[in-house]
Design brief:
The complex is a heterodimer. Chain A contains three helices and no strands. Chain B is an all-alpha fold. Chain B has 16 helices and four strands. Chain B is extended, with a radius of gyration of 32 Å. The chains are: A mainly alpha, B mainly alpha.
Chain lengths: 74, 414
């Protein structure tokens, strides 16, 4: 009973990935838009984009952490 | 053994009794078909919606009770083995209910517990401990339990060796206890010392005999690269200060970046240990840095630092909520800083481990198509390793740049 509930909970925790996917897509689409408008800033913008990507990805990893907590801690 | 036989006898008696009289309903009020009827539940007892679920529930209850009595974790193989001995995988509700009530009422003195955890089982570490007849002694009960479930524990260890999280295990190399504190030298400490040694060796080699050659060799280039990189970061991110004051923070930030970079990269060496995949380490780092930054803020602004919590130009009625929100988000910075690094490292390493385990298994399936098809997973593992190398560098960078941003916030009060 509890085992099954744990698995369901861990699976449900991965729904959060949808948000992270949208976020990462948004970061890079904005990068392409910006570089298309002003190619001379490409290098600087890429740095910002990578930072934004890392921050967004970290949110997805919080979801992963929740899944691990549900599976192994309780 | 005698008790066990008695117990089984009692269970059998209960079973026959309930089967004989179960023509009305069981304890749950669910009607059970009369013997002799051609109900579908009688022909296929597994189909009964209530019985199956309740059997599992009772068996779990027995395991829980056993784990409480044995003072061990419910997932512990010995507990599982003992619980299985007690209920014997029976699907008879009344029998299971009786066992559970016996366990609840009599605890360690109950027939069921004594059957599940035999006192006369041979102990691995020598003879029977004194006072085993009582069966109430804590240490004794634990020892008896451990010897009883020893076979299953071995089996479980072999299976557990495949878990992708095993690589993060901390094992003591030198056991040390000072007073009540456990201060063993573990593989974690070993790899942290290795990282430190590596960084110090690199810096030592470069600065030997005054260092700073006009034409740098490879090592000097590397150190200069890192130094320049962090110096640029500090100069760009922290504003509103003269160069001298700004550079008081520079050594701390440089050391943090170098330490994290080398920890992360060292973890990418196969069969090594990733220090930053433990939030023991990352949270200790992020919390101490967070406290340091807060102290810097109070030093520079005194009590005026609290204005940090209230953005300028906010209407007064909104202020209490905003202060609360800002306070929470400020405190959460410390947590998110550490967890981001930890989660990235742990997730990446587990992923590589899972996929490489998959490729490894596929290689030995004795089938030429699988053998050739294994190139696919292999390349995915290779690509992921490349990605992880990037993430290792990127996360050190992100950690450092966030420290700079937070420091800038504390100094300039947005």
């Amino acid at each position: 009973m509890l085992e099954g509930a744990k698995l369901i909970g861990a699976g449900a925790a991965t729904i959060a990935l949808a948000g992270a996917a949208v976020g990462i897509g948004n970061v890079f689409s904005s990068l392409i838009h910006s570089v298309a408008r002003n190619p001379s800033l490409a290098k600087q913008l890429f740095g910002y984009a990578i930072l934004g990507f890392a921050l967004t990805e970290a949110i997805a990893l919080f979801a992963l952490m929740m899944a691990f907590l549900i599976l192994f801690v309780f | 053994m005698l008790e066990g036989a008695k117990l089984i006898g009692a269970g059998a008696a209960v079973r026959t009794m309930t089967e004989g009289s179960s023509n009305t309903s069981n304890a749950n009020g669910v009607p059970i078909p009369i013997p002799g009827s051609t109900g579908i539940y009688e022909d296929h007892p597994g189909l009964h919606p209530a019985v199956d679920e309740r059997v599992v529930e009772y068996q779990a209850g027995i395991r829980e009770q056993m784990s409480e009595l044995m003072r061990m974790d419910g997932e512990h193989p010995e507990v599982v083995a003992a619980a299985e001995r007690v209920h014997g995988e029976s699907d008879n509700i009344a029998f299971l209910q009786g066992l559970l009530e016996d366990l609840r009422a009599h605890g360690r003195e109950s027939e069921a517990f004594k059957y599940g955890v035999p006192n006369d089982a041979p102990l691995p570490g020598g003879g029977n401990p004194a006072g085993s007849s009582g069966g109430v002694d804590l240490a004794n009960g634990n020892e008896a339990g451990s010897s009883a479930g020893v076979d299953l524990a071995n089996v479980d260890d072999a299976a557990a060796a495949e878990s992708p999280l095993d690589q993060f295990g901390i094992h003591p190399i030198l056991d040390l206890n000072i007073g009540e504190y456990y201060v063993s030298f573990t593989n974690l400490s070993l790899f942290m010392l290795l990282t430190l040694g590596l960084v110090l060796l690199l810096v030592f080699v470069v600065t030997k005999k005054g260092g700073g050659k006009l034409v740098p060799n490879a090592f000097q280039s590397l150190v200069e690269l890192i130094y320049d990189f962090v110096l640029n970061l500090v100069n760009e991110q922290i504003g509103g200060l003269s160069g001298n004051v700004k550079h008081k923070f520079f050594p701390c930030i440089l050391v943090t970046f170098t330490f994290l970079l080398f920890c992360n990269l060292q973890g990418m060496i196969p069969f090594s240990f990733t220090v930053t995949s433990h939030f023991l380490i990352t949270l200790a780092l992020s919390f101490s840095i967070f406290i340091g930054i807060t102290i810097v803020g109070f030093q520079r602004h005194g009590l005026h630092f609290f204005s940090f919590l209230l953005p300028a130009g906010v209407p007064l009625p909104l202020a209490p909520f905003l202060v609360l929100l800002e306070l929470i988000s400020y405190c959460f910075r410390a947590l998110s800083l550490g967890i981001r690094l930890f989660a990235n490292m742990m997730a990446g390493h587990s992923l590589v481990k899972i996929l490489s385990g998959f490729a490894w298994t596929m290689l030995f399936l004795n089938n030429i198509f699988y053998f050739l098809g294994d190139l696919g997973p292999l390349f995915i593992v290779l690509a992921l390793t490349g990605l992880e190398l990037g993430v290792a560098i990127l996360q050190a960078y992100v950690f450092t740049i966030l420290i700079c941003i937070y420091l800038n916030d504390a100094i300039n009060l947005h």
